[in-house]
Amino acid sequence: MGKATGFLEYCREVPGEIEPLERTKSWQEFSVPLEEDKLRTQGARCMDCGTPFCHVGRLLSGMASGCPLHNLIPEWNDLVYRGSWREALKRLHKTNNFPEFTGRVCPAPCEGACTVGKSGSPVTIKNIEKAIIDRGFAEGWIEPQLRAASTGKKVAIVGSGPAGLACADQLNKAGHKVTVYERADRIGGLLMYGIPNMKLDKSVVQRRVDLLAAEGIRFVTGVEIGKDIAASQLRAEFDAVILCGGATQARDLNVEGRNLSGVHQAMEFLSKNTKSLLDSNLNDGKFLSAKGKHVVVIGGGDTGTDCVATAIRQGCQSVTQLEIMPKLPVTRQPGNPWPEWPKVLKTDYGQAEAAQIFGEDPRAFQTSTKRLLGDAQGRVMGVETIRVEWKENEGRLLPVEVPDSVQVIPADMVLLALGFTGPEQTLPNQLGLAVDNRTNIKAELGEFRTNVEGVFAAGDMRRGQSLIVWAIHEGRQAAREVDRYLMGSTQLP
Questions:
Q1: CB under 8 Å to 73, separation ≥6 — which residues?
Q2: Can you give the pTM of this predicted structure?
Q3: pLDDT value at 2 more than 90
Q4: Is residue 380 over pLDDT 90?
Q5: Domains in the chain, start-ordered, CATH in brackets?
Q6: Taking a C-beta distance cutoff of 8 angstroms, is the pair 246, 461 a contact?
Q7: 161, 188 contact by CB (below 8 A)
């Protein structure tokens, strides 16, 4: 695929970015697209590897290796190299309903499994994917498609994140009448309110939502199933119900001082900022402001990085990101062979911005929070931390505190970015759904049926906190099984 010797002749080149000092003045996406000739060159780097691991999509050592959507990556790389952009778009849409989302926020497990990356730099798969879909919209190639003849079946989908939207799209194509319920005031779930605008512009999300609505999907916002409408009522009114509400139960921090003023969950901070940005360009003041504050973010994942970048744009005085895990190496280690996901040090956009503005990487590795300190008025004023070392104990690595390593970091705002423990339990309780030991809804992979007739579950609500590509994959596969349940057979992929 691509040029037979392209991987030997051309080096990896990624799009440029607006410099941190400039881009942090706005909330806009900051990637600078490559010119077409450079994109075609990058497509040429896709080698004729025989067995393309990039689209295998399996778990190795507990991490995704290759694309869970099984995207036809070598095919559209080759088409881009040859300048056949419209054909590349068709290949892309065969397996991925929303490449404009994955091309922006997916961590690209496909690149971690790229054969070229075994001994060099992988193909820029994610950037080529984004270029294909963005060109498709720019050229007007993507238009509403008439759905199949109506089957007369009605389907309700709870949750409008990537799993819910993918499920809705597929079932609509099959001819079912689909209604998507979302408790927020805008459609998109975490795509809309959980990911900052500079990482995923909300006009990109709304563009796809408008397209789905034009194709016949009904969206209902501001309605929480289980509260505004009983879950049992929904089950009685529809032929099938698919639960795609995500894993929205945030992990908390059980330390002294947790209830001090100024301590917030990351999702509260991020979602309120985005809503205010969309509603009033932040003029309504209905958000948690980091302006002039010393901010401490507890958690080293993507959400923590988003908090760092958001706090910087709000005008924080300083920002520190605490990470309990050790600093990763810069190259693969013997125990992390290809095609496993490369466990190497990653400096994301938020850390790069903080380093440029404040002079150093904001991350403090192997650091655990002991307690939160407050003033006489009950406001947070500091975070007491301690260094930890990871030592093996009965076959498990556990953090052990380092003596005499306690420090206090000044903090006017503390943001908890510790991930999620599972879905909220309102719907499982109302419907009598079985859950696993992590409180996820029990529904076998490949079937997606719960223990209640006509009720299915997909995405993070079923599998726990995961990647956007897994969510889209589960939404697609759940749609296939719902179609089979309703019609006796299915033609959905």
A1: 46, 52, 54, 55, 67, 110, 123, 125
A2: 0.96
A3: no
A4: yes
A5: 6-138 (1.10.1060.10), 154-249+421-487 (3.50.50.60), 252-418 (3.50.50.60)
A6: yes
A7: yes
